Each structure stands twice: as C-alpha cells, then as structure tokens.
C-alpha cells in the first residue's frame, strides 16, 4: 500500500464525509482502491467520519496518520567522477564527449543518460523569462517585412524572389499579410495603406523592423528612420523601430 501525502489524505477524508464511495474516490484521485480503503478504515476508527464532529484539521490528520515517507535518495553512478565531470564542463566539453571520456579513460560503465541527468543537476537550466507587453486597443501595430522564397511572376512567367509584409495589431493580434515582389519604399507604403483600409483605421504607433525601406541605419539607441517617406505615408501616428525610439511626423508635411 502506498503512503500518501497530507493533501491526499485530507482529500480522501473530506470526500468520505460527503458520502463518496471508495471506487469513485480511487478513480478521481488516481489511487488504488486498497489504499483508499486503508485510509477509510483509519478515518472511521478515529471518528473522523462522524458528521456530528467538526471536520478534522490538516494538523490533526498529520499527527494521527503521520507524514508520508520521503523519497529514497538514489546516488548517481556518475558521482564518483564528479570532479572529472566538473573539470570537463569548465572546459566546455559536450556531454557526449564527457561520457566517452569517462568510459575510455576512467572505466565508467554507466549510460549516457546517467551522465546527462548528472550534468543537469550540476548545471540546471535557467528558465526562459518572457515579458508580456500589454497595449490598449488602437495603440500599436507591429510590422515585419521579409523574404519567403520564390514565386512565379504571372507577368513574365519567371520565378522571382517574394517578400511577405505582415502587420499585427498588438492588442487583438489581428493581422494583415500581403505578398509582394520587392521591398521598395513605394511598395512598403502601399502595403501600409492597404492594411489600414483593411483594418478600417490607423493605430497610434507603428513598430517597424529594421528593413531598409524604413530604417536607413540600425542602431539600438538611435536608429535613423526614412523620415521624408514616412511623413508622406502616415496619418498622425508615431513610427518607431524595434528599439522603440519614437518619431512624430510633421503633419504639415502631408498637406
């Protein structure tokens, strides 16, 4: 019979008090009926199923039933070679090579999986952190413009390099995509105009990637944007590169 942790014991006792059957409890909690029957017997002996008594507190159940046994500690077969493994890791040796050298030079007989698990305990992976950026409706759209391979030009019948213009509304994730055959400024502006017509409006800010049609010089702190063309193509919006340095176009330049 398996020994359960305190949360599982509490759950079983509370379900028994509500009249749930052993079969249903075992099915819901994933324990064997024998285990549920054992705790049913203990709970009845202690009087915990008497509905005239208060529901037992977790501390009382822990005191009466005792803590669950701790998991057995298994020593890795790689442990005797810990110093060797640490030196190889400092030298940036890959795990497959570490296993090979342990076998060849130190007589290790374990598997590669054992070495892999041991290394991961020595050097646990740092979880990736994602920052979610929230924007209100209508505030921002993100633009990407990149190559997607070659397609056939219906005008000439020849294969030509194609590009996909994608603009995504940051709040709703609603997208507009268009395939074109070049990345010229005129094409880039036209894609924006058709996207705005598709959306039925213009967002306050456009975050652009470092494509040549919009960014003359990529720089993390101070990118150089193609201001004259952007001024002709935008309508009271702010345009920014991926580094989020804003630029406000002069409204008089578009009259």
Would you summarize the structure shown here?
The protein has 255 residues and is an alpha/beta fold. It contains 9 helices and 8 strands.
List the helices and strands and how they pair.
Blueprint: H1 6-17, H2 22-29, H3 33-46, H4 58-65, H5 82-90, H6 95-106, H7 112-122, E1 140-152, E2 159-169, E3 175-180, H8 185-199, E4 205-208, E5 215-217, E6 224-225, H9 227-233, E7 238-241, E8 246-247
Parallel strand pairs: 1-4, 4-7
Antiparallel strand pairs: 1-2, 2-3, 5-6, 7-8
Helix pairs in contact: 1-3, 2-3, 6-7
List keywords for this structure.
single chain, 255 residues, alpha/beta, Nucleotidyltransferase, domain 5, 3 domains, 6-stranded mixed sheet, two-stranded antiparallel ribbon, 8 strands, 18% strand
Would you mind describing this structure in some detail?
The protein is of the alpha/beta class and 255 residues long. The chain has three domains: 60 residues; 44 residues; 115 residues, Nucleotidyltransferase, domain 5 (2-Layer Sandwich). Helices cover 38% and strands 18% of the residues. The chain has nine helices and eight strands. The strands form two sheets. A six-stranded mixed β-sheet has the order 3-2-1-4-7-8, covered by helices on one side. A two-stranded antiparallel ribbon has the order 5-6. A hairpin with a 4-residue loop joins strand 7 and strand 8. Helix 6 crosses helix 7. The C terminus is likely disordered.
